[in-house]
């Protein structure tokens, strides 16, 4: 007889600081001539405990020693041993920190599973026989099998024992209402299998997942009945002693039920790795079940529930279910938990949900803004809190709420703590959003806030800081006045050879500074801005975004009389007209260019240039009826000013407004006039009943329309069109004041 051993795989021990070596032992019986007669192979494992392993251990030396002393490990596996030892050195011991998440085997330890004997895999048949006895014996047999299942090395043997697994599944299916301890123990056995993906088919085969769903739903209904009964006893003022006994009994039942819910939900969480299985759970209202369980107090149970919800929340259908069940209100209370893992997973779930605008509203209603703001001080949770708050700040309705928390002071402190070479993109993006609100801007600029921001924006030329500064500059009031001291610095950045995206932000900031006390003419001359603007306004000379900011800046400085004259003399108006022709499809460009003209017509010098030396009024008349309401509004206002100061354009503007307002009626009248001249049906030469005579002049095609009395009061063909009856007589006729005997005068 001969023996041979063959090394296999290496793994770490799930609960101890030890290595597990899987190997095979092959026994062969030799014949008289030495030939093999009978062979037997058995899989075994060896546990190498590493009691001396700690954070200061030299991993390389220890790995070399393990390989030398254990003949089952081939020297070629030295790197793998080092990697496993490094993992054991850095992983946390289960039980050292009750707030840390437990491993799968550690998780299932609960009250009532202690035994006075050691479980042995060779006695599995005896344990199965106990499952056919009464409830206490069934609990003992299931507990012994659970002790075996907690060792991952026994799972393959248990998987091959169909009798044991079948008996466990049968007892669970038939007796789960008889004993909570029995139910929890059997589900824990299958939970051990569910911790490994390769055993999921086994758990599914025995339909343990579906049964767990039914058990959990039943337990939640039972919990509601307990709550009602307890409330009735409190309201009925039962004797204090009886009430105390009932409360103690309730606490014991509650503890056992939460253990059952915990292991059952964890099993379902493991099975939900498969998307199809997760879909079946959703069809059985798993989301509603989990949200209802959020009302419980046990933190370990809540950790499983929140983790499960976090996994489900990546699908839109599940997210919508959470919105309908108002899960955010129940999650809000968990933000005050001292359990770090529970808090972290809650924040991650809220982050997943915060992409939905409706759920963001629920977060605000639940008071999450001050709670999350207070958590910014916790460095381990800061990034998650900041991301959620950033999503909330995207909605203009909620921006002002940040001004009433300590969020902004903390953000400003974090902004200036990080060095100039490194800017946290999440942090500065959040600040950019907040700066778009007036109340927030005032808080940000308090003290030396604006000065520190300008230093970061101007010296390192940080474009993100400049975006934040630009948002701050848009608010009227005391905040905008603070920027007077920095106008020169911003203008210098514009004419300097800087990156285009940075210059865009500087131009945008300057364009926002509509400050009456600011001498724009001095700024233009001192920094030679007019030639720069004229050169870069030419179509194609720069990116559209940069050109647009220049147009807006010209509109801002044109409010000053001397600046408007400077702009007009520089020949910048024809350049703007050329730009208008090129960008006529871009409503933003068109509106801003027209606004420049609007500002210029307020001043005598520039108004004369626009009216007499350019075609701006004609362009404005063409744009009076643009589809964009803002463009129409600016055009009408500009033309009204032009018409007020120029009699020639007054007639054209009024005629065009009248023609557009009464276009359908005019077409009908002109068509009828042609019919009176020889065509009894009014169809004209081309058969068009609405044809009209066009002499080629868009402003005078109807002659002087406003001086034709027939267009005002002869539309019903009753009153003569030669103007022999005045409008007053016609009004009297409509009011019934003209007698029928007198009638109307003849033509």
Automatic annotation (TrEMBL):
Coiled coil: none
MF term (GO), any: kinesin binding
Superkingdom: Eukaryota
Extent of the signal sequence: none
UniProt-listed Gene3D superfamilies: Leucine-rich Repeat Variant
Cellular component, GO annotation: axoneme; ciliary transition zone; kinesin II complex
GO biological process, one term: microtubule-based movement
Matching PANTHER family: KINESIN-ASSOCIATED PROTEIN 3, KINESIN-ASSOCIATED PROTEINS
Name recorded for this polypeptide: Kinesin-associated protein 3
Native species: Esox lucius
């Amino acid at each position: 007889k001969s023996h041979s051993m063959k090394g296999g795989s290496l793994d770490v021990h799930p609960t101890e600081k030890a290595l597990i070596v899987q190997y095979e032992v092959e026994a062969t019986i030799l014949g008289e001539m030495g030939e093999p007669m009978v062979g037997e192979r058995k899989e075994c494992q060896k546990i190498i405990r590493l009691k001396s392993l700690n954070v200061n251990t030299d991993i390389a030396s220890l790995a070399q020693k393990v390989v030398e002393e254990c003949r089952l490990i081939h020297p070629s596996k030295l790197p793998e041993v080092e990697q496993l030892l490094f993992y054991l050195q850095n992983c946390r011991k289960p039980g050292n920190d009750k707030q840390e998440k437990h491993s799968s085997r550690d998780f299932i330890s609960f009250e009532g599973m202690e035994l006075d004997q050691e479980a042995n895999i060779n006695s599995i048949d005896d344990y199965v026989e106990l499952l056919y006895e009464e409830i206490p014996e069934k609990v003992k047999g299931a507990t012994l099998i659970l002790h075996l299942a907690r060792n991952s090395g026994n799972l393959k043997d248990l998987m091959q024992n169909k009798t044991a697994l079948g008996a466990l599944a049968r007892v669970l299916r038939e007796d789960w209402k008889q004993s909570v301890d029995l139910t929890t123990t059997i589900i824990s056995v299958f939970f051990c299998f569910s911790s490994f993906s390769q055993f999921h088919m086994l758990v599914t085969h025995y339909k343990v997942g579906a049964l767990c769903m039914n058990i959990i739903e039943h337990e939640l209904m039972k919990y509601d009945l307990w709550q009602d009964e307890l409330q009735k006893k409190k309201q009925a003022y039962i004797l204090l002693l009886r009430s105390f006994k009932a409360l103690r009994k309730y606490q014991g039942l509650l503890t056992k039920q939460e253990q059952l819910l915990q292991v059952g939900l964890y099993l379902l969480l493991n099975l939900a790795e498969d998307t199809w299985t997760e879909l079946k759970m959703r069809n059985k209202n798993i989301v509603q079940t989990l949200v209802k369980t959020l009302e419980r107090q046990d933190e370990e149970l809540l950790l499983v529930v929140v983790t499960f919800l976090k996994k489900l929340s990546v699908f839109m259908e599940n997210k919508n279910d959470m919105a309908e069940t108002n899960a955010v209100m129940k999650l809000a209370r968990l933000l005050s938990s001292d359990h770090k893992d529970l808090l972290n997973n809650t924040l991650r779930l809220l982050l997943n949900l915060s992409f939905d605008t409706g759920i963001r509203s629920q977060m605000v209603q639940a008071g999450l803004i001050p709670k999350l703001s207070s958590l910014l001080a916790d460095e381990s949770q800061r990034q998650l809190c900041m991301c959620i708050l950033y999503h909330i700040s995207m909605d203009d309705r909620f921006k002002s709420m940040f001004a009433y928390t300590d969020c902004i002071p903390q953000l400003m402190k974090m902004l200036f703590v990080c060095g100039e070479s490194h800017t946290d993109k999440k942090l500065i993006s959040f600040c950019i959003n907040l700066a778009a609100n007036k109340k927030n801007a005032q808080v940000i600029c308090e003290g030396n806030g604006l000065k520190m921001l300008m230093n970061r924006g101007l010296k390192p030329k940080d474009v993100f800081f400049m975006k934040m500064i630009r948002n701050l500059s848009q608010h009227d009031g005391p905040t905008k006045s603070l920027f007077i001291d920095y106008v020169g610095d911003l203008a210098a950045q514009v004419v300097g050879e800087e990156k285009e995206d940075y210059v865009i932000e500087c131009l945008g900031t300057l364009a926002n500074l509509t400050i009456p006390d600011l001498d724009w003419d001095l700024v233009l001359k001192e920094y030679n801005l007019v030639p720069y603007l004229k050169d870069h306004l030419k179509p194609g000379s720069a990116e559209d975004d940069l050109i647009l900011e220049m147009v807006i800046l010209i509109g801002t400085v044109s409010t000053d009389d001397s600046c408007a004259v400077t702009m007009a003399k520089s020949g910048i108006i024809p350049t703007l007209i050329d730009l208008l022709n090129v960008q006529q499809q871009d409503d933003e460009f068109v509106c801003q260019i027209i606004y420049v003209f609007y500002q210029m017509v307020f001043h005598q010098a520039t108004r004369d240039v626009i009216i007499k030396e350019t075609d701006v009024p004609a362009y404005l008349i063409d744009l009076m009826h643009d589809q964009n309401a803002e463009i129409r509004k600016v055009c009408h206002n500009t033309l009204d000013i032009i018409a007020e100061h120029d009699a020639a354009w007054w007639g054209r503007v009024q005629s065009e407004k009248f023609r557009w307002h009464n276009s359908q009626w005019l077409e009908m009248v002109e068509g009828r006039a042609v019919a009176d001249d020889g065509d009894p049906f009014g169809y004209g030469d081309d058969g068009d009943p609405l044809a009209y005579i066009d002499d080629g002049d868009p402003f005078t095609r109807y002659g002087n329309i406003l001086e034709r009395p027939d267009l005002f009061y002869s539309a019903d063909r009753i009153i003569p069109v030669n103007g022999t009856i005045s409008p007053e007589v016609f009004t009297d006729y409509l009011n019934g004041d003209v007698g029928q005997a007198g009638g109307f005068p003849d033509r």
